[in-house]
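Person: I keep going back and forth on a fold encoding question. Show me how you would write down a chain together with its backbone fold. Please set it down just below, with no commentary around it:
Helper:
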Amino acid sequence: MISLKNLRSCVAARFVRDYMGHLRIATCCLLILIVSGSDAADLIRRFPYPFSHMVTLASDVDLQSPETGAAIHRLINEQLGLPISDSIWVQGMANPGTALFSGGLELNKRPVPGTQHTTYGLVVREWHRGNADHFHSWQDDAIPKLTQDFTPPVRLAKERTLVAVDQAPKQLRFIFYRNLRLNFLGVCPSDLHVVLRDDGGRSHTVGVMDVQNGLRVMVNQGKNSCVTDVLFGLPPDVGVACNKDCFDLTTLVQVELVAPSCKSGCNTLLSSITRDGFSRRTVLMQAPFLEALNMRPIFLSSHGGWTFAQNFGWPDDSELAARTAGSNYESTLVDNRRRPLGLRADEYAYQGDILKRLGVTSIWNYFLSRRNNAQDMMNLSWKQSTKNPTRTHKIFYDVTRTWIPDNVYRFDSFEHFVKDIKALNPLLPDDFVKALFCHGVCSSDQGSMLGLSLDASFSMIRRGHVVDHLWYTHLATGDSTELRTEQLPIVTTAVTKLKELGNHYYNFSGKVAAKARAWVPPAGVAVNYRNIWPQAAKHIKVDPLTSEVRIEQWVDHVSGQRIGAWPNALAALHGITIYVPDSQSARVLIDGKETKSFSRNLRDNSGRASITIVDESTPYSLVDGVPLESGGQLRALNGKVEDITLGTDQRRDYVRVTSSGRDAAAEWLPREMAMYNITHLRVAFRKKSRNEGAFFVELEMEGKRSVVLAEKGAIEKYENASRSLLVANGSEVGGWNELVVPLTDFTWPAHSAGTLPPLPIGRVKALRFGIVGATDGNAQTDIRVFAGLRPNSNPTAPDNSKLVGGQVIGMDGKPAPSIVVKANILGTGKMISTVTDNNGYYYFFRQPVERILEIAVSRGERLCAPLRGSFLQVRKDDPEIDIALNHCQ
């Protein structure tokens, strides 16, 4: 609809500025009808161009080892080219689980088979590649909670009070119980300390300071209650420096409460003693490590487990686990009341404020199905339309995941299963249906049934429905008779449908209609987009004559985050696609600052052109402020090539290639350069004049796969490459053309089944660039930027700083501990240094964006630089700047 305000401003402006009058007024108002509607659909597309649907996954990491996860993402992300993300745990007790910490402040140093990495080292890399981007709860909840209630409560009636404690069941004695929680009625004496005794006569004293520090577990310590959470196996400034060998809480038989101030009695009563492995204090002490590593998820999904303490749900939600003979719950000492406490500020496991600090905006709850006595609101059937963002909790959005309800198909017999699946989709081949059948856990949230889930999306698309599916799955789980291997870590039926999804996304075949194209974003990006899209139109203005787009900053009413605020503006708005009269002349200003990070789209089925905001906060930069020669061989293929440095700080400004003939070309052969989960390519180039020949840039990947961006006149010679036509626009003669091109706009050559799609994902073998067909016979072109972009669902640090690090490999081919790594900060005369840990990892935390570091290790009188090159311009979080001492650069 056109508003009276817009009509008046349009008429007034054109009447004064243009004597053509009525014709221009009519044109203006017609354009306003197009771009200034009151409904989001009038101004922005439902999905990013060119997509009509969204189909992607949110996978819980249950039973998934880090090596299995790495194999899964080599297949899905690198071989199939789908930017699908996974989850991790921050803390995990189950081995070989995918978690950063094994407990307390102990990093998960389990070696990952077939690699030089520990679990925590590999998890950090997978996270910053975009293969994982959310938490499946803070912890895996693998430690049953032991709770002993005292009825009546035990009063501190004298200086020393002895309390008998029951030992843990024998099947739980192997667990390292790190948390000892004492729950009191009344106020804890300020001089209280505790003496613990086990069944072998050993004792350990927990001092006054440890008891006082334990009070931090409660945000809201009630007036008539006191809870202290004593942590074991930690440095003495954090908790009790005593591990399981020093004192074992599973064999605890007596607690002596010592409080000299209670010599004549205190109104303090011990109501219960709890032993487990998680509390708010766990989150408090591990969160700074995540912040330093810039591991900041947008959303968190709740996990099951023994206690549910780390989970989210309604405050009064709970369930009682059956005390089945032979199970851990058989013992009455094991607490069988499972409650979600993540947002209970009056409980020991409250963590909502810490998650907000990390950047979490959205939560998948665990218990809503029980409250509603119906299908879980957080798991919508694939036939239902996704609702506008909802919130169970005031400060978090709900995450809605898609599933096929359990009652849709039977798997009690092969005949029933085939009949029900055929009813879902009669077009499924018989062999495919037979391959889906399993004998155990066959619900649609299992990875073995992923093929069925994805096919449900395709079936809905074929029927003309708009699909918005964030599939609930567990990539590593599900009963299957098919043996999973490193080369094929997921079942064949899932691979078949993932390949089909790739065609809906990229249109490899060239035959996918626009109405069938499906967006496949990482899970965190999908969640953020669902939250932001309904709000965006209210804060966007489009000039109907110039196609200038202005996006105003606003405060999200749930998360409290400033959307459209720099430096995180592009990540928050990634994918927002705005209709404009002319995409080729469009300009975009976000919060008053112009950005070139958007794609210029052709007209879609509505007949309108558009632009799409593209996140550039995580670039894989091949051409930036670092001399190319520092990271590989730079040579002219035709003419002369040179790095042009304009400033005094050795920062390269651009690369120029010139020739006395009509063509000029150069080639860079990097020693080490890889890109992951790339969705767009960004290039900035210029020519002597706009019509001075045709510019091209070619990426050669492993396997002789070529990826090409080129102007008309150069692109024609790349018929067998994946390619996209560059349309130079918006620059004056001799000015810079800055373009962002989505891979989903490429034209794809035929590639046979089993071969890799021709995508810029994986190792880069060569970069070639230049100009062909210069009219005056003096070819010249400059390139300032060339990078692969991936959307980042990892919120930016408050100061926008980045992580830089890697692993040092010694002369023996093994990770090298205690190696000093130095970095010269270019242009400042300053040096920073760090030391590798026992697994050879080094990190430089909180590095400013744009800073150039010269990184090296001293080897006698020599300096050993990373294989990638001695210079690094900080653009993104990068923990893969590895140094091999037997391959010094």
